[in-house]
Structure formats: structure tokens, C-alpha cells
């Protein structure tokens, strides 16, 4: 399926992974709306390599043929109903993550569901979204059903590093485009409490960190705030575990935006347990901005 429809300049292709699952349908709807807003080309990718790797007997081959026919028909029906018809619907003989990454460049946006369908459901719930988020050369959006469907608030995790710039830019632009309020959330890492006599030290240290963080965050937000004066911006500095704080904040958000790189608590976000906590436990779509 293809078309020659001309799209607006300056924005890369939106690449949506599709496998027929409910979250994939949400990802297609989200990606199509985003592509329409950005006047970007839209590609829908169906990965078939996962099915081929499981061929052992003729029954497996027959299952693959039937499943591929069903999935192709389902994908064509889904894209026909999408807000913006895609430029192409592509069957890629690769696993889900490579199929999405191979055609991407730094200007692209990859959109995929948080949970897959059938045989690949456990993969898309974890390793695929994690792999794509870590290795894609572009912004990645992991779509799931929000816990508060009517909530439009955008939450962006921020620190004072240059690595957060793409996240702040994406968040401000999305908030302005959709008219959503924006919360800029900075997390001060906490640790397990020590003996009782240490509580005063912990309290004093947190107060000092808070006083140091607030002006840095204000400075980091200043340029985007000036560029998007209509955005209703709320600044928050919260103590806790980064993954827990961001996941909790997502319960009352329509979109959670984080940077692929950062400093301090955010620096290792996509490299271990924090990144997994955000990708797996967030209660709304998550944007990994580059």
C-alpha cells in the first residue's frame, strides 16, 4: 500500500510498528495524528521475522502463512481507518526491534505499542520497547492506554544538562500544539534512611539540594518557556526514586516525556532499572526524546 501524497518539509518520517494488538492500534492512531500534526510522512511496519524464526514443521509454515495473511489484512483495514493514510505499509522480514530501527534516521519518530499480540506479547512488553528506546537514532514513543484517558497534561522529566534539551523541546511543542498544560518535573534522588541522628543531616542536605536545583531548572526551562509563552507551565522539584516519581506522575498525565541522556539521576535512565520502570510502569504514553 503506498501513495505519492506530498508532505510538509522539515520533519522526518513517523514509523509505526503494527502487530494487530490493542496497543498497536493505539500506537497507529497516535502516530497518525502526530504525523498529521507535523505534516510528516507516515510508514506502518509489520515485522514478520518473529514468525519465521519459529518455523519447525509444515504446520508452523502453514500457521505463518495464515497469520501473515490475517495480519496483513488487519493492518490494511487499520491503516485505512487511520486519521492520516500512510505513505506505505511494509512487511519487514526481521524481528520487531530491527524492523523499526533499520529504516529510521535522526529526524524520524518511532511509535510502538507497549504490549504486543500473540507470540510476541511478552517481547513487546519489555525487550522490544527497551531495545528500540536504547538503540534507535531518533525519538521513540511507547504507547499504552492511559490510566486517565481525559487527562491531557504533559509531564517532562528535566535536569540542568544539555541532554534534556530534546525532551523539553518536544514537551513544549506538544503542549503548545495540543493546548495541554505542562509540568516540568525534576527529581532529587533519595536514599534509605540512616540512624535517627542522621535525619537532621538528610533534611538539611535536601534543603540545600532544593535551593541549588530550582534556579538551575528555571534557567534550563527559560529558552523554551520564552519560545512558547502560551504554554501553561508548572515547575516541580520532588524527592524520591526517579522511576517511581515519574511513573507516579504519569497516572495523572496524557504524555510523559524524558530525554535519552541526562546528568545525575537521569543519566542512566535508559540503561537499567529506572528506564525499565518508566517504560513498563508508566500509566500513559512515554516519549524518549532525542
UniProtKB/TrEMBL annotation:
Gene3D superfamilies associated with the record: HUPs
- Signal peptide segment: none
Q: Which residues form the UspA domain?
A: 13-144, 152-290
- PANTHER family (UniProt xref): ADENINE NUCLEOTIDE ALPHA HYDROLASES-LIKE SUPERFAMILY PROTEIN, USPA DOMAIN-CONTAINING PROTEIN
- Which family does the UniProt entry place this protein in? Belongs to the universal stress protein A family.
Query: What is the species listed in this Swiss-Prot or TrEMBL entry?
Result: Nocardioides panaciterrulae
Cross-referenced InterPro entries, in alphabetical order? Rossmann-like_a/b/a_fold, Universal_stress_UspA, UspA
- The protein, known as: Nucleotide-binding universal stress UspA family protein
Amino acid at each position: 500500500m503506498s501513495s505519492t501524497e506530498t508532505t510538509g518539509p522539515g520533519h522526518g518520517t513517523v514509523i509505526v510498528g503494527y502487530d494487530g494488538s490493542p496497543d498497536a492500534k493505539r500506537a497507529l492512531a497516535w502516530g497518525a495524528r502526530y504525523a498529521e500534526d507535523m505534516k510528516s510522512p507516515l510508514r506502518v511496519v509489520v515485522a514478520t521475522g518473529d514468525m519465521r524464526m519459529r518455523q519447525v514443521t509444515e504446520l508452523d509454515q502453514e500457521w505463518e502463512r495464515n497469520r501473515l495473511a490475517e495480519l496483513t489484512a488487519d493492518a490494511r483495514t487499520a491503516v485505512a481507518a487511520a486519521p492520516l493514510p500512510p505513505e506505505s505499509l511494509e512487511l519487514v522480514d526481521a524481528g520487531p526491534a530491527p524492523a523499526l530501527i533499520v529504516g529510521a534516521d535522526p529526524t524520524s519518530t518511532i511509535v510502538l505499542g507497549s504490549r504486543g499480540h500473540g507470540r510476541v506479547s511478552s517481547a513487546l512488553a519489555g525487550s522490544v520497547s527497551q531495545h528500540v528506546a536504547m538503540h534507535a537514532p531518533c525519538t521513540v514513543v511507547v504507547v499504552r492506554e492511559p490510566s486517565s484517558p481525559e487527562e491531557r497534561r504533559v509531564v517532562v522529566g528535566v535536569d540542568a544538562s544539555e541532554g534534556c534539551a530534546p525532551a523539553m523541546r518536544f514537551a513544549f511543542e506538544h503542549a503548545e500544539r495540543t493546548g495541554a498544560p505542562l509540568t516540568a518535573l525534576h527529581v532529587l534522588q533519595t536514599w534509605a534512611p540512616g540512624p535517627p541522628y542522621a535525619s537532621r543531616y538528610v533534611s538539611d542536605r535536601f534543603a540545600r539540594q532544593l535551593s541549588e536545583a530550582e534556579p538551575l531548572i528555571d534557567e534550563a526551562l527559560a529558552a523554551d518557556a520564552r519560545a512558547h509563552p502560551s504554554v501553561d507551565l508548572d515547575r516541580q522539584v520532588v524527592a524520591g526514586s526517579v522511576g517511581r516519581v515519574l511513573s507516579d506522575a504519569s497516572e495523572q498525565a496524557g504524555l510523559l516525556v524524558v530525554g535519552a541522556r541526562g546528568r545525575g539521576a537521569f543519566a542512566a535512565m535508559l540503561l537499567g532499572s529506572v528506564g525499565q520502570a518508566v517504560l513498563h510502569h508508566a500509566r500513559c504514553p512515554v516519549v524518549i526524546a532525542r
